[in-house]
Amino acid sequence: MFHSTRGNELVSSPEAILNGLAKDGGLYVIDEMPKINYRDFLNDDYQTMASKILNAFFPEFTYQEIKNEIDNAYKTFDIKEVVNLHKASNAYFLELFHGPTLAFKDLALVVLPRLMKLSKEKMGVKKNITILTATSGDTGGAALNGFRNIPGISIVVLYPNGGISPVQEAQMCSFRSDNAKVLAINGNFDDCQSFVKEFFANNKDLSLSSANSINIARLAPQIVYYFYSYIDLVRKNEIKDGDKITFCVPTGNFGNILAGLFAKMLGLPIKNLICASNKNNVLTEFFDKGTYNKNREFFRTNSPSMDILISSNLERFLYYASNCDTNKVSSLMNSLKSTGKYDFKNPYDYFYAYSTDEEKTLDVIKKVYEDYNYLIDPHTACSYNAYLEYAKTTKNDEKVVVVSTASPFKFPQSVLSAFNVSANESLDSVKLLSDKFNIAIPSVLNYPEVVREVVDLDKAEGYVKGIVKCFESK
User: Fold this and answer.
1) Which of 35, 288, 310, 348 has a 20 to 30 A CA-CA distance from 206?
2) Mean pLDDT throughout 229-240?
3) Is the dihedral of CA 15, 326, 196, 252 positive or negative?
């Protein structure tokens, strides 16, 4: 059973999945993690491992129900193993971009719609449900792809106008479906995300849910790749069973690294978790100084998916770090809403945090290619630089998994600029990247006409409400 980070009303797995956000505005959590032994997965492929882990979190579904959906979901990935580890000395790049939109969000967003479909069936819900989600770039395309042809569910995606890459925008704005709408909002990602939360609170009469990692069924599938990467290293004799390893995670909304914390809580031998940020270093300051303060300049950077000042999933971290104190979490969230900040001393000594500016991001992209003949995107560069800083801080040569969240083809202009190759803000840069590095363009980067629709933030409430009501009437 699940309950809110801010209260104790119990709900079942299907209810938590369909609600997305708790009635009091909190996020769904469980007080005791399910019993999982990673050694039970040593002979499993990714799909089987995912099915077992999700069944442990959502026991109202049968293992076979989940397994059937998982098997079908991951058929869209371009490698059988779903994810891949690429070795670079003591670092291992965990490639999470082999899905249909070339970003780590695919790992969860090909699964979430199927879990929502199962939840509707379990609860006997006939009414159309609309997914309302905000994206800093990758969630939108992955969510649109995931909810394609899912009966009884529609989707509205909001993204910051001018705040994402041309490839990310093309993936969303070329999408065509009767059950989908994409809107560019004049504002930043935090504006979009805050709008979504307020819309949920103000429109409880509408059938709404979320595809952001505030939805527990979006978060749970992300736990799997932590287990899989550890077991893959054991299988390849890179580490011994029982050895502890560290994960370095590019972090914006805090969902990806929170999944790593969950994996550690479930018993995976994780030594440390490194939180990698870009110039928007609100999380770095939080872990270094114990103060979360969003009252600062917002930067649009060359790693746009991390251009975030309000990390929603940090609320779940606060819940567990405060010994499951819902009153404490409510107080902190009220402080954030009223003053834009709060103070909280992190009790976990296994969190490290580093930030990387734009110039250093480009330097790292170039260095990794020169050293290992391996091309990475800007978010992965922030992660790798955090790993380098961590290695310098700890003065050891331990093995670290560097989470690689996107293909370099999603951010071709930035990657090319690391090599002093100028490219305009268009999709032509995809071919330029392919030609320069002799890498085949992924087949999914083939878009029909791109059509943008822009809405001012102060007009979005009525406009989105009209869209949702239209979907409900179908």
Assistant:
1) 310
2) 97
3) negative
Rounded to an integer, what distance in angstroms lies between the CA atom of residue 108 and that of residue 113? 9
Does residue 443 come out as left (phi exceeding 0), alpha (psi in the -120 to 50 range) or beta?
A: alpha
Indicate the length of the chain as a whole number: 474
Strand order in the sheet with 351-355: 84-88, 91-95, 400-404, 245-250, 270-277, 351-355
* DSSP H or E run through 292: strand 291-293
Task: Catalogue all structural domains in the chain, each as residue range(s) with its CATH number.
Answer: 3-102+216-355 (3.90.1380.10), 112-214+449-472 (3.40.50.1100)
The interaxial angle of helices 63-73 and 112-123, nearest 10 deg, is 140
Cα of first residue to Cα of last residue in the chain, in angstroms, is: 32
Residues forming a β-bridge with 11:
2
Give the orientation angle of helix 314-321 with respect to helix 326-339, to 10 degrees.
140
Judged by average pLDDT, the poorest of 156-160, 425-429, 453-457 is 425-429
Strand, coil or helix: what is 243? coil
pTM: 0.92
* Per-position DSSP letters for 108-141, written without gaps between them: HHTTHHHHHHHHHHHHT--S-EEEEEE-SSHHHH
Q: 91-95 and 400-404: which strand pairing?
A: parallel
Q: How far is CA 154 from the centre of its chain?
A: 20
How far apart (Å, rounded) are the C-alpha atoms in residues 406 and 221? 17
Q: Given 105, 117, 120, 181, which residue is catalytic? A: 105
Of 168-177, 217-226, 418-427, 428-437, where does the model show the most confidence?
217-226
Q: How does DSSP assign 348-405, residue by residue?
A: -TTEEEEE--HHHHHHHHHHHHHHHS----HHHHHHHHHHHHHHHHHT----EEEEE-
The DSSP line for 27-93 is -EE-SS-----GGGGTT--HHHHHHHHHHHH-TTS-HHHHHHHHHHHGGGSSSTTSSEEEEETTEEE
Quick: pLDDT tens for 397-436: 899 999 999 999 999 999 999 999 987 766 788 999 999 9
- Whole-number Å distance between alpha carbons of 178 and 345: 47
Asked if 102 contacts 95 with a C-beta cutoff of 8 angstroms, the reply is no
Site of tokens 């990310």: 168
Using 50, 70 and 90 to split pLDDT, how confident is the model at 212? confident
Tokens, residue 423: 């490219």
Tell me the three state secondary structure of residue 181.
strand
Q: Look up 105 and say whether it is catalytic.
A: yes
What letter represents residue 139's amino acid?
T
Rounded to 5 degrees, what angle do the CA atoms 53, 58, 63 make? 65
